Amino acid sequence: MRAGAIAVNLPTVTVRDPVAKAVRLMAPARMPGLTIAVVAADRTLTGAITLERLLTSPALSDPGD
User: Fold this and answer.
1) Vertex 2: Cα angle to 56 and 34 (nearest 5)
2) pLDDT for residue 38
3) Which runs of E-coded beta strand occur in 1-65?
4) What is the pTM of this model?
């Protein structure tokens, strides 16, 4: 199975958003957390890009069958 088969778009917040916005997004869906969109140099880094930057190369190259 590939992540793309189960991927869904989830809401994000930025560091400039009020905490209340994050809570309003999380509470109804009982979400354990949100991706915080990092805005740098007039572009937003998606959760996928942020995660990719956090993972090591061996983890990225292993498809996990």
Assistant:
1) 65
2) 63
3) 12-14, 35-40, 43-45
4) 0.42
